[in-house]
Every structure is written in C-alpha cells, then in structure tokens.
Amino acid sequence: MAKDDNGGADNTAADSSSVARVEQSTGTSVVTRSAVGNPGFPPHRSRVTDLDPKADRNAERTVYTLFYLSIAGSIFAIAAYMAFPIVPEDMGSVRLNNLFIGVGLTLALFGLGIGAVHWAKALMYAHEGIDERHPVRGTDVVRARAVEIFQQANEESGFGRRTLIRNSLFGALIAFPLPAVVLFRGLGPQDQDPVALLKTTLWEKGTRLTMDPTGVPIKASDVTLGSSFHVIPEGLIDLGHESKLAEKAKSAVLLMRLKPEDLIETAERASWSYDGIVAYSKICTHVGCPVALYEQQTHHLLCPCHQSQFDVTNQCEVIFGPAKRALPQLPIAVDAEGYLIAQSDFTEPVGPSFWERS
Amino acid sequence: MTSVSTREPTEVKKSGGFTASAANYIDERTSVSGAVKELGRKIFPDHWSFLLGEVALFSFVIILLSGSFLTFFFDASMAEVHYDGSYAPLKGIAMSAAMQSTMDISFDIRGGLLMRQVHHWAALLFVAAIGLHMLRVFFTGAFRKPREINWVIGFVLFILAMAEGFTGYSLPDDLLSGNGLRIIDGLIKGIPVIGTWFSFLLFGGEFPGTAIVGRLYSLHILLLPAIIVALIAMHLLFVVVHKHTQYPSAGHTNKNVVGYPILPVYAAKAGGFFFIVFGVVMLIASFVTINPIWNYGPYDPSPVSAGTQPDWYIGFADGAMRLVPPGWEFVWLNHTYSMNILVVLGVVGLFIVTVMIYPFIEAWITGDKREHHVLDRPRNAPTRTAIGAAGVTFYASLWAAASSDIMATHFHLTMEGVIHTLQATTILGPFLAFYITKRVCLALMKKDREIVLHGYESGRIVRLPGGEYVEVHQQVDDFERWKLVSYNDQKPLMLRPNANGKITVPEQVRAGLSRWFFEDRIAPVDQVELDQAHGAHHTEIEGSADKPAQISDK
Predict the structure, then answer these.
(1) Rounded Cα gap, residues B181 and B373, in angstroms
(2) Structural domain that includes position A168
(3) Quick check: A357 and B194 in contact, CB under 8 A?
(4) pLDDT, tens digit, for every residue of B143-202?
(5) Would you call A122 an interface residue with chain B, using a CB distance cutoff of 8 Å?
(6) Euclidean distance between CA atoms B62 and B117, whole angstroms
(7) Residue ranges of region Disordered (chain A) (predicted)?
(8) Which residues, in sequence order, are CB contacts of B238 under 8 Å at separation 6+?
(9) Is the minimum CB–CB distance between A97 and chain B shorter than 8 Å?
(10) Option in B206, B278, B524 nearest A197 (CB)
(11) How far apart (Å, rounded) are the C-alpha atoms in residues B287 and B282?
C-alpha cells in the first residue's frame, strides 16, 4: 500500500487502535456487538501492464500517440481558422468555420484528456493508498485555547462589560448598509406612477388600427370573414425606440372577423364590434405573453407560453389554462373613409394582473 | 514523501538543476512546500459517481473560458441599431446593439459561433451535472454529519447556476429571451404589495425598457460568477477538510479513506477528465446548433412562435405555471390576488427549501451525532431513497409540463388531456414513486440477507442420489459479504419522558417521523446469524467460491 500520513503503518479496517473519540449519540442507530467484522482489504490485483512488459510498452505508445494527436488537433484548429474564413452572407462558410475549428479543438482536447487518463490507469503506480481520518472537530486542547482567546479578547476589550459601546456598535452596523438599499431606488424611474402607466395605452378615441409592423391603416372592407390581423395603434412606429417597445407591449391587438351571429355580446359591448369585426388585446392576462395563435375554425386564441385558451366568440373568456381574466376588448368603429378606429382606450388594464389593478 | 521516488531513486539525489532552483526560489518566498506536503499525497477514493461533481466544476471552468472570450465582443446595450451584418434575412431590421453584437459573434467573427455554442452547451451541462451530483449525494447519504453545511453550499450553487443560466439566456435580447423576461415581469407583477414597483425597479420603468440587458449583464459576468467562485472554493475546501466519502467496501471504514493520491494518479485522472469533458462539449458545439437567435429575430412584444421552450433547467418552474387550473385569481378589498402565480411560487419555493434543509430534518429525526464517512447504498436507507424518488417524480412532472404543447402536437393528444394527466402525476406520482421505491429497497435488502445467509444461486443443477434436482447455492466471499452486511441500521425512536417527566410535542413529532422512517426495518445479518446459517445447514447444497459443492445432510 502506498503510504502517506500513517507513518508507514498498514491500516486495515479491523484496526481499532485509533485515538479515543468523543462519545457521540448514535440516536436511532442500532449498534450491535455481534456485527460481522470487516474482513480487511481484498488481495491486490495486478494489471496486465504490470505483468506483461509488452502491454506496458503498448500502453506507453498509446499515451504518447494520443498526446501527439492532440498537438495535431491544435495545429489543425489554427489552420482551419485560416483556411475556412467567413465569407460575408455565405452561411455555408460559417458552418465550415465552426465545424473545422471545432473538430480540431475536439481532437486536441480528447487527445490530452484520454492520454492523461490512460497514463494514470495503465501505467502509474497502481496500489491504493490510505489516509486516516480524524474527527472534524478540533481537539479539546485546541478548543479550550480558542475559548480562552475569545475570553481574553472579551476582557481586554470590555466587549461584554461595556454594554453601551457594544449595543451602539450593533446599531451602527445595522444602520450603515441602509443608505445602500435606498440608493437602489435609483434603479426605478423617479417621476412615473407605475399604476397610472399600466392602466393606459396608446389607444384613444379615433386612433386608427394599423398593421404590425408596417403601420398601414386597415379598412373594414380589408378584413374578410375568417381573417385575422396583428394590429398596432397608428403612430406607434414613429415613436422613439425606448417608448416604442413599451407601448407596443401594452397596445398590441388582434383583429378578427367572425360571422356576426357567432358572436355572443353583452348589451353594453354590442356597439364595440363592427359587422363581426372584433379587436382584443393580444397580451395574455396570465403573465403577458402575446396570445398569437388564432384557431380559425373554433375561434379560439391560444397563448403559446402557458396554453391559456380564450374564446373569441364569447368575449375572449378563458376556457382553459392558468389565466383567469378574459382578454380586454378594444371598442372599435369605422371612420368616414372606411378605416377602422378605436372608440376609446381599453376600458381596463391590459396584460398580467398586478396588485393595484382593480 | 516516502514512496514517490521508489522507482528512480537517483532522480532525488540530483540538485542544482533548473527545476530545483526554481522550486527553491518559489518556496523561499511562498512556503509552498508545506502545501505540497499536506495535499500532494492526499487520498481520493475512486468511483464513477464521484465524477459528477467534477463534471460540474469542469463545465464551470469551460463556461468561464468561453464566456471571457464572448465578453470582448458582446455589447450589453439596448440602443436601437439597424442590423448590417452578414446574415441576409435580418439585414436592415431594427434591433438592439446586444442582439446585433450576438449576431456578429455568430456570423462575422471566426470561431465566434463555436465559442457561443461551447458557452451555451457547457451552461446546460453545468446545471445538469450539479443536479446529478446532488442526487448522488442525496441517495448515498453523503449529506450527513459533518457535511450538512457543504450540502447547503452546493444547493446555493445550484440556484446560482440557474440564475446564471437565466441571466445569460436573456442577454442576446432576441424574441425568445425577451418572452422569457416578459414572463418574469408578469410573475413579479403578481406579487402582492411590492410587485408593480419591483417590476419598475428591475426594468428601469415600463417593460421592456432599455436597461434590463445591461443590468443582467452586470449580474451575469460580475456579481453571480464572483459569488459562485467563492462558494466553489468553500465547497472544495470542505471536501479537503472532511476528506471524501467512500462506498462501503472491504477494508473501508469510517476512520480511513482509501483511494489514489493526488500526485500523480488523481491529478492525471482528474486533469485528463477536464479535457475529456471539454472535448465532449466542443464536439457537441461543433456539430449541434444551440439557441439560433437568427431564426427568432429581435425582441418584439407582439410576435411569438409556437412551441417555445425555456432552457431545460427552467422547465420545472415554467411547467408548474402551466399546470395551474383556470380561475385562480381573485379581487379582495380592491386588490388583485394572483393565486395562479403565488401558488406556483409557493409550491416551487417550498420544494427547493425542503431540498435545502433535508439533511437537518433527517439528522433531527435520527438524533445521530456521529460523523458518517462511509456512504449508504440507497437500498439500505429505504425511506430516504423513497423520498428522493418522490421528489424526482414531482420535479419530472413539472418539467414535462414545460413541454405540454409539444407533447400534444407530437403525439396528437389534446392540450387539455396532457395538462390533466400531468396535474395528476404531479400530485399522485410522488406517492406512487415513494411506495414503489420503498418496497423495492426493502425487497433488495431481503435479497441481500438471503445471499449472505444462504449464498447466491450458482446456476449449477445437481442431481441427488435420490433423484431430486437442486440448484447449488454458492457462498459469497468475505469481501463481497461485507458490502451486504455493513450498513447503518436504524429503528424507530422510543418515546421517553424528559428530565421534567414530560413528553414534549416536538419529541412526539420526532418519534412519529422516525416511525415513518424506520418502521419497516430489515436488520443486517450479524455474526451469530451468520454462524448459525453456515453451521447448521439442513438438506441444502452449498458450495463456496473456491470449493466445489458439498452435499451436507444435517
């Protein structure tokens, strides 16, 4: 056996001469005196490389061949970097560049790794070693000394005696990080009311419904039976980058035309559709994914994130999935030129629920 | 050191060479020889399952290497640009600088796509390896004293690894990652009282704003990696302090550790294994595309594609959200309570907190204050193994739910059918898994007892003089037997009044739990039983490993 910190003594499992341990509770464990004894280590089994010099030489050859292969792989990767440049707009060149550099590096890594492991397993000294374990806790002497040091420090500083100093120190240490917490208030906007922002969108009376992403206004006559349009409010595409996405995240709308007799509408919403054309918020009332999948036959809308389903014929009430609320409806009408316009903003906040929503 | 130089003793005598003077120079300035003395011949036990933690460590190194490369090219800005790179289909499209620089890494920098894919694949492997490593530690009881704190450190690393994954996934600002952030935004908004404000703090205003990528970048490349590196250092330090656990085996005791020394065998094996892991990741990255953001396009709140999937390790959380039945939201006192979100956060949170504190629960139940360095074979801790199986089943059900839509379309099932089935397996599956696993463990323990007492079936059929046919049972050898009899046996706690003559409620709970844990108990074979079994055989045919079968007749 290879030895290390055992001073050369052969340690076997049956050896019970180790240092006396602190008696510790065995709890619900059953300790029996008649347990079967540990038989000690099984006899060592030699490897084929230990017994056969030819196998040993073969293994050595394998190891250095793998290391040479690794060098070849590295050189191949460098060569591939030069030999397979990326040609603009040629996706095939990207693929070749990726593939050949990668294959070269793979060879370099596998050669190194398999070579080293094979070296260890086939050629290195093969006897297992034993380390003795000691209890993780410090020895009684060391622990006593540690306690003594703390007591000494306590006496010399008066930490326990001068309670006013100690308590005020604790207070100061608790108070000092608080300004850092306050500083993080700057992460949020200073002059905005989140609740007000979440309750309004870009839609207002007379805003034309335009196509996403072109911004072309939509005429009622363009919306044929069974068709659906992804809609954004007029003027959205002219906004600056920052507000554009934020506004779009609230005002995206799905426009569909059904047979008017298929629509079940409450009396107050009877005037919100136009000749079977209805507009609903596209933002899921669960956690805000776009409800983009419209099943024309069943008139169901499906959210691809968590599979909430909404029934367009029944004012987009939830028929399945984790969402609770119906998709908000945008009241629409037609202007003098035949374009679809909003009658007003949504009458309730769109998108996911939030604390101050109602 | 005593045995290093046995093969070539002449090497040691030489001095004054470059290596010797360099070593001397360094030691006189760092005292490094002490570290070599302490660690150089430290013993590490060998077992394939001990490699899982190494895979995790090595994939983290790969992530650091490839990630450092990526930082030189990535631009963590959400400023609007119009794409003008090599990928024709997106030319002129408005996107953020983050997305454009990711496109450039993929299509305009040689080897850039390779490094991106290495980074992403290694990240998936990192989380997977940590998860499997945790399962190994759990099922073998390696979390017992003195390793409870190291379990918690490892658990925190698992959470941080998922956080690293999610923040990294969000950086390219593509359609898919933007939808992921949108879901996070929706989750946060569902939190009572602080949700709305917290969302505005995180995104710097209304979702999506122009701040989030830069902020996630700080977390992803600075704060989280720094914490992970520190925790890994602590984790490994404790491995050194505790010395590695070992499987039960002849010669292995609670007071020794048997294996190969760091220098040279373990260093060569582990070092080589690093390159093998790296090689596997490189091979996958060379051939298999991951996260093709060019197919998704830049983030836009309106479009989304069907069949969206998060990276695998977020799946269980995403799946949990899908399993919530309709209608779990209400308004009370003018405020909205999004139970469809809060219940998910609560259940998932409870699950992972249970994982974290499990070692302390088990330690409390057993009351065993001894150190445990020899691992349990999973069968020998039936209730723990069954709890683990139940946890795995629960996690797997949630995880499968994240692909509910893909399962439905792939196998032509209804969406509702898939969800209802997974709702059932999430709730009933763990109970079933617990029961089956516990029974299987107990059956295996019975089988072990049988083998120890009566040997194993050798497959040799012998005809007795009377014409009867019997199969020869062969005794296991002493070394093999030790594995089958050396486990830690537990029995339920006996309730006794304390010093005040009272039986406290916590003790009652503890006794109840210990009954649940250890009621079904199969004690290991002891020497008395063994002697009886081997001394007094009835008309049984026995053979031992080295002797042919003997016919013993009372």
Answers:
(1) 44
(2) 141-174
(3) no
(4) 999 999 999 999 999 999 999 999 999 999 999 999 999 999 999 999 999 999 999 999
(5) no
(6) 11
(7) 1-53
(8) B147, B149, B150, B153
(9) yes
(10) B206
(11) 9
- Between CA A330 and CA A203 the distance in angstroms is 9
Global pTM value: 0.92
Partner-chain residue, chosen from B146, B279, B481, that has the shortest CB–CB distance to A106: B279
Question: Looking at CA atoms only, how far is residue B190 from chain A in angstroms?
Answer: 5
CATH architecture type of domain B40-73+113-304: Up-down Bundle (1.20)
Chain B touched by A286 (CB under 8 Å): yes
If contacts are CB pairs under 8 Å, which of residues 335-374 in chain B contact chain A?
A: 335-336, 338, 340-341, 365-371, 373
- Of the candidates A3, A125, A353, the beta carbon closest to that of B2 is on A3
Q: Which residue reads 């980074």 in tokens?
A: B119
Dig out the tokens for B401 from the structure: 């739910």
Q: Do A185 and B201 touch (CB under 8 A)?
A: yes
CATH at A237: 2.102.10.10
When the pLDDT of each residue in chain B is averaged and rounded to a whole number, the result is: 91
Whether B506 has its CB under 8 Å from any CB of chain A: the answer is: no
What are the C-alpha distances in Å from A319 to residues A100, A279, B331, B418?
52, 18, 20, 16
Q: Select from A239, A97, A32 the least CA-distant residue to B491.
A: A32
CA B162 to chain centre: 12
A19-58 pLDDT per residue, tens: 444 568 888 888 888 889 999 999 999 999 999 999 999 9
Name the token pair of A9: 């003594």
For chain B, the farthest-separated pair of C-alpha atoms sits apart, in whole angstroms, at 95
Q: Which residue of A has its CA nearest to B519?
A: A28
Supply the DSSP string of A169-210, one letter for each residue. HHHHHHHTTHHHHHHGGGGS-SS--HHHHHH--S--TTPBEE
Check if A35 contacts B (Cβ < 8 Å). Answer: yes
Residue A286 lies in a domain: yes
A36 located within any domain: no
Tokens describing residue B465: 């003089």
Q: Between A and B, how many CB-CB pairs are < 8 A? A: 402
Q: Is A110 helix (H, G, I), strand (E, B) or coil?
A: helix
**Would you state the structure tokens that stand for residue B489, as one six-digit string?**
């046996």
Where do the domains of chain B lie?
A: 40-73+113-304, 314-445, 446-552
Is-cis flag, bond preceding A39, omega within 30? no
Which residue of A34, A242, A282, A283 is the best one to mutate when testing the B interface, meaning the one whose CB has the most B CBs within 10 A? A242
Is A132 at the interface with chain B, CB within 8 A? yes
Burial (0-12, 13-18, 19+ Cβ within 10 Å), B89: exposed
Taking a C-beta distance cutoff of 8 angstroms, is the pair B470, B430 a contact? no
> What value, to the nearest 5°, has the Cα angle with vertex B375 and ends B509 and B232?
95
Q: Percent of chain B beyond pLDDT 90?
A: 84
Q: Same domain, yes or no, for A249 and A328?
A: yes
Q: Tell me: the pLDDT tens digits for A280-319?
A: 999 999 999 999 889 888 999 999 999 999 999 999 999 9
Asked if residue A350 is part of any domain, the answer here is: no
| Cis, bond preceding B208 (omega within 30 deg of 0) | yes
Say how many domains are in chain A. 3
Residues A51-64: b if buried by 16+ CB within 10 A, e if exposed: eeeeebeebeebbe
| Three-class secondary structure of residue A254 per DSSP | strand
- The pLDDT of residue B13: 52
